[in-house]
Prior knowledge:
The protein is an alpha+beta fold and 198 residues long. It folds into two domains: 1-86; 89-196, 3-Layer(aba) Sandwich (Endonuclease, Chain A). 68% of the residues lie in helices and 9% in strands. It has four helices and four strands. A four-stranded mixed sheet has the order 1-2-3-4, with helices on both faces. β3, α3 and β4 form a beta-alpha-beta unit. The relative contact order is 0.07.
Amino acid sequence: xxxxxxxxxxxxxxxxxxxxxxxxxxxxxxxxxxxxxxxxxxxxxxxxxxxxxxxxxxxxxxxxxxxxxxxxxxxxxxxxxxxxxxxxxxxxxxxxxxxxxxxxxxxxxxxxxxxxxxxxxxxxxxxxxxxxxxxxxxxxxxxxxxxxxxxxxxxxxxxxxxxxxxxxxxxxxxxxxxxxxxxxxxxxxxxxxxxxxx
Length: 198
């Protein structure tokens, strides 16, 4: 009998220990799960915060680039205005002759009108630019014969060629060069008009 009671008490003790262990285990599991949830929530919060910061930096960089572009455009406009106000003798000579030709006289669309000393893509300021017929006219003074300037002219012509423009160069006070340039302009207009009628 005594042994039975002992065994029973042992059995009860073991049962109680098992229940306590299971309770403790479930509590620890729930705490671990909660910690894991908290950690995941915290990680998610910081990931979202990092994304927001990256978006903000991207937006600020874009605004800064736009401000720089606006500043460059203003500088080019001012430079073009100075060039127009202080025309070199070579350009004055050209314009006196060119205005008499009045090649774009009958054109009503401003796109097909000649522009004089206006900025092009904040890169260059051509002497004459026609965006509709896609040609440029450059009046070359004596300094254009130097190797350094010729290299710059080649780079400039290539820049416009890639964008579908032709560059017509006229030598300063050279009537033969002027006449050849005017013929090239007329041929270009006919070419573009022919393409538009196809």
